[in-house]
Design goal:
It is a single chain. The chain has about 350 residues and is of the alpha/beta class. Helices cover about 35% and strands about 20% of the residues.
């Protein structure tokens, strides 16, 4: 029996716990801090609630890290050192150095490291990847990826609104499509980005546009936004190749769409994309992770993928700050982000 331990009892911890239960292995233990006490989530699944990591680790085989971003590396490395397999919510860590340490620790301990980039499990993105892999559109040349919503409703003193701890829009939202761009068109060599919040942080919104240059010659245009009214969550994508185009749009079944400020009061605290997929992509992701842990398949998201996504998010943030292009992986742009 695989004993699952959830670290964090907030939105993602609750989401992952439900997905593990749907896969037939409800969490055996839950640990969380004082802001989100573990008791409620633990009681829902008959799990043991903990507030100390040591006793928690003794009761589990797999540690699912759904803690705040700045704690990912510390928890994941401690779990790996204890011989526990690690599932980690995206992003893998807050910095490239931390992410590399997590990868190295899990490799040294001989445990699985599974990074929860759930968008790879959304059917439209998986279908686009499958079409590209089959050669339907030929060689990808231009990608346009967009993810637009509102900033999650958080208290002013919440870690999420502390850019040093969370990484802001780039690490929380844009990282999904940075991972997608690399998944669909290969490794990235440089990034050039601009962000609204860097010019007016007091506005309480952000919108970032990034241009990625891929090693294979493709160019990706990626935008992410926390400047839309609740309950908006729109995703779009297009990949053009020398033989055709594959595209998707979350609003495609709504020719006319109206969003009113009157709807803001009923919006969820954390925006979540919608999909017609069955099963739910979060459930599909966890079911896949369980199959990997049981040796039944290979991971769709590797440890290297998780590290690469942190590298790209770091490069985007560095480009916004510097105002110039940033190299990824050791090329010769003005600023460099590498392992």
């Amino acid at each position: 029996m695989t004993r699952i331990g959830i670290v964090g009892a907030g939105f993602m911890g609750t989401t992952h716990a439900a997905a593990w239960a749907a896969a037939g292995v409800p969490p055996a233990a839950v640990i969380a801090g004082p802001d989100t006490p573990p008791r409620v989530l633990a009681d829902r699944y008959g799990a043991v609630a903990h507030t100390e990591l040591g006793p928690f680790l003794e009761e589990v085989d797999v540690v699912d890290v759904c803690a705040p971003t700045h704690l990912h590396a510390e928890v994941a490395i401690t779990a790996a050192d204890a011989g526990k397999h690690v599932v980690c919510e995206k992003p893998l860590a807050r910095t490239v150095e931390q992410a590399a340490d997590v990868v190295a620790s899990c490799a040294a301990a001989g445990v699985h490291l599974l990074v929860a980039h759930v968008v790879r499990f959304f059917p439209e993105y998986a279908a686009a990847k499958a079409a590209i892999d089959r050669g339907v559109i030929g060689r990808p040349a231009v990608l346009r990826l967009s993810r637009a919503t509102y900033r999650p409703h958080k208290a002013a003193d919440n870690w999420f609104l502390d850019h040093v701890k969370s990484g802001g829009l780039v690490f929380d939202l844009m990282v999904h499509d940075l991972d997608q761009a690399r998944w669909l068109a290969g490794d990235v060599t440089s990034v050039y980005a601009r962000g609204v919040a860097s010019a007016g942080p007091e506005a309480g919104v952000d919108h970032v546009v990034a241009v990625l240059r891929h090693a294979g010659g493709a160019i990706s245009h990626v935008d992410a936004s926390w400047a839309h009214p609740p309950p908006t969550f729109r995703t779009r994508g297009e990949v053009a190749g020398d033989l055709g185009v594959v595209s998707w749009d979350s609003d495609r079944d709504q020719p006319v769409r109206t969003v009113s400020r009157a709807q803001a009061g009923s919006s969820a605290a954390i925006p979540r994309p919608t999909t017609a997929a069955t099963p739910d992509p979060y459930a599909a992701q966890i079911a896949h992770f369980l199959a990997v842990l049981r040796g039944e398949t290979s991971p769709i998201v590797t440890a290297a993928d998780g590290l690469a996504a942190v590298e790209l998010a770091t490069a985007v943030s560095a480009s916004i700050e510097s105002g110039g292009p940033v190299a990824v992986g050791g090329t010769d742009e003005d600023t460099e982000v590498s392992r």
